[in-house]
Design a protein that fits this description.
The protein has ten helices and eight strands. The chain is α/β, with parallel strands linked by helices.
Length: 297
């Protein structure tokens, strides 16, 4: 049975202890099983206290990051690439300390619009670097999950098929795909088929609407998404992601072009998302059971 999570930025972009406590309480109140964080800084956050609170509430924890240009691991500048490795290793340790088992996000390259195609050398450099980082992650009991994002946020991995080819080139069995319905809706020819093709290499899923607002009010065919996840037997974690100018993280808002207010009541948004995802998964399972029953003699 999949655990269903929510991105912390639905609640707050603040790392103040009181705001983090409220974020965890809201996550539990809205019925989620996981809380997903970005950019936690141990200098400003009591990680031990946060981990204990997560455990006390019966939640799971995740960290999703996006490498910045200053830590782009496929940059030919060795100092920049080394900074990226340092960021990734730090995130792995932080995830472990929070009691988490997955690091996801844009890990293979810097996050942001590029103006040229990646070279084969850049692809190979990124793959080789992540293969080494994946061993550090394995030792910490953590997997790496590469988010496949749209062409305006990365020039390296835009489709699940590209992600599969990249993982094969790393040679690592501790690297998986992090698929996101918002990005897949832009880049994939057939979202359901892409999910089925990726099958056992999917380690994490983001559920987000085409406009990043309320689920079911955009253009994504979520029935096809849930049917595909059910058909491959996916039972791992997935999380709801939605951004609005109501709650602003300046860096993320610029990178993902969050220029308008898609919602103002985050609890209403979150509760709706929890019901929507739960019902979607249950409906797909029931449909699959009916099909299976009809095939019996």
């Amino acid at each position: 049975m999949s655990r269903i999570g929510i991105h912390s930025f639905v609640w707050s972009a603040s790392s103040a202890q009181a705001d983090l406590e409220r974020t965890l309480a809201n996550t539990r109140e809205a019925g989620f099983d996981l809380i997903e964080f970005s950019y936690l800084d141990p200098v400003n956050v009591d990680i031990g206290r946060l981990a204990k609170r997560i455990a006390d509430l019966g939640l799971g924890g995740r960290i999703i990051i996006s490498l910045k240009a200053v830590g782009d691991i496929f940059n030919p500048d060795q100092a920049v690439a080394a900074r990226g490795v340092q960021i990734l290793n730090h995130t792995i340790a932080l995830t472990r300390d929070l009691g988490g088992r997955k690091v996801g996000g844009i890990l293979s390259t810097g996050h942001g619009l590029q103006t040229a195609s990646p070279t084969r050398d850049q692809w190979n450099r990124s793959a080789a670097t992540l293969a080494r980082v994946a061993e550090t992650a394995r030792a910490a009991g953590v997997t790496l999950n590469l988010e496949i994002v749209n062409r305006f946020e990365s020039n390296l991995l835009n489709t699940a098929a590209q992600g599969l080819a990249f993982i094969e080139d790393t040679g690592s069995d501790n690297i998986f795909l992090h698929l996101d319905t918002f990005h897949m809706n832009i880049e994939e020819a057939d979202v359901g088929l892409a999910i089925r093709h990726a099958a056992n290499k999917i380690g994490y899923v983001h559920i987000g609407e085409s406009h990043r607002g309320f689920l079911g009010t955009g253009s994504i065919d979520f029935a096809a998404v849930f049917d595909a996840l059910t058909s491959i037997g996916y039972s791992d974690d997935l999380s709801f992601e939605s951004f609005s100018s109501e709650i602003v993280d300046e860096n993320l808002s610029r990178k993902t072009a969050i220029w308008r207010n898609l919602w103002t009541d985050n609890m209403e948004l979150a509760r709706h998302a929890r019901r929507f995802i739960g019902l979607g998964l249950e409906t797909s399972r029931r449909k699959a059971d009916l099909v299976s029953a009809s095939q019996r003699p």
